[in-house]
Design brief:
By secondary structure, this protein is of the alpha/beta class. The chain has one domain: 3-Layer(aba) Sandwich (Rossmann fold), CATH 3.40.50.300. The protein contains ten helices and ten strands. A six-stranded mixed β-sheet has the order 6-7-8-3-9-10, sandwiched between helices. β9 and β10 form a beta hairpin. The longest helix has 16 residues. The protein is globular and about 55 Å long. The N terminus is likely disordered.
Length: about 280
């Protein structure tokens, strides 16, 4: 099959407009005596841009990891693309794309090799891999840099590559964890323009962010604090419901609900492993 001169990345969403794309029901996650997530419930409908907000240590990262099958809940239920994250994790994984807050690329490989590896891990048919990789590179505007090592890329180039990789296998739901952290204004604008294109195709996007300006553009948001959902609705609804005024900002709402005190969050095992890798892994002295 010939690849178009300007290929457009398409998404196999197959949405059911009457069934939530993401659904959480009374999710609980305990770590010993610590209850990180405590009875969290919400729904995200197909095609929505849903923001998930919370201060450090509020439980948003734990919830994100449950929804992406990286962590099992202590109790409760979660379904993504119609499949249970505990009983049917592989079916969930094949239907989601994930862009993590921390870079998850292998910087010892080229852009092309990263995409090819992702295709193999997702069991994309071999005869399709070349076309899908070329299309992803073109879509991310990285074709001229396809055979460069990722360690030579700028932060914006890496983010575009991560987004292209997350979409390579045509997921129904895209999970973004602080997707614009470390990007300059041009990089942020480019990433959200790409997400807007995907949403016009009907993709569901679940974004965890601290950026209130970005959260303002979401269809709906949920604010979590100390493991519980303290508010959810559209940004305009939350402004009126919480502060009784439509002219306030979502940041005003967030601070009113979660307080102004600084929150410190200790590094978990994953954070420490990532830092170990950044410092050279086993070569660290």
């Amino acid at each position: 099959m010939r690849i178009a001169a300007r290929p457009q990345l398409t998404v196999d969403i197959s949405p059911d407009g009457h069934r939530p794309a993401v659904e959480a029901r009374e999710l609980v996650r305990r770590f010993g005596d610590l209850v990180a997530v405590n009875g969290v419930s919400f729904e995200v409908m197909p095609g929505e841009l849903f923001g998930f907000l919370g201060p450090n240590g509020a439980g948003k990262t734990t919830t994100h990891r449950i929804l992406t099958t990286m962590l099992a809940p202590t109790s409760g239920e979660a379904r993504v693309a119609g499949f249970d994250v505990v009983r049917e994790p592989e079916r969930v994984r094949y239907r989601i794309g994930v862009v993590f807050q921390e870079p998850a690329l292998d910087d010892r490989l080229t852009a092309r090799e990263n995409l090819e590896l992702h295709a193999i891990l997702y069991r994309v048919r071999r005869k399709w891999i070349r076309q899908l990789v070329e299309e992803a590179l073109e879509w991310a505007e990285l074709t001229p840099h396809a055979d460069r090592l990722v360690r030579t890329f700028s932060g914006g180039m890496k983010r575009r590559l991560e987004l292209a990789r997350a979409l390579l296998h045509r997921p129904q739901v895209l999970f973004l964890d602080e997707p614009t952290a470390g990007l300059d204004p041009q990089g942020r604008r480019r990433l959200w323009n790409q997400v807007a294109v995907l949403r016009r195709l009907g993709m569901t996007v679940f974004v965890t962010t601290h950026n209130m300006q970005e959260a303002e553009t979401c269809d709906r948001v949920a604010i979590i604090d100390r493991g519980r959902i303290v508010a959810q609705g559209s940004p305009s609804e939350l402004k009126v419901q919480t502060l009784g005024r439509p002219d306030v900002t979502l940041e005003d709402v967030f601070l009113h609900l979660t307080g102004r005190a600084l929150r410190d969050e200790e590094a978990d095992t994953r954070d420490m492993l990532l830092e170990f890798g950044r410092r050279g892994g086993e070569l660290t002295r």
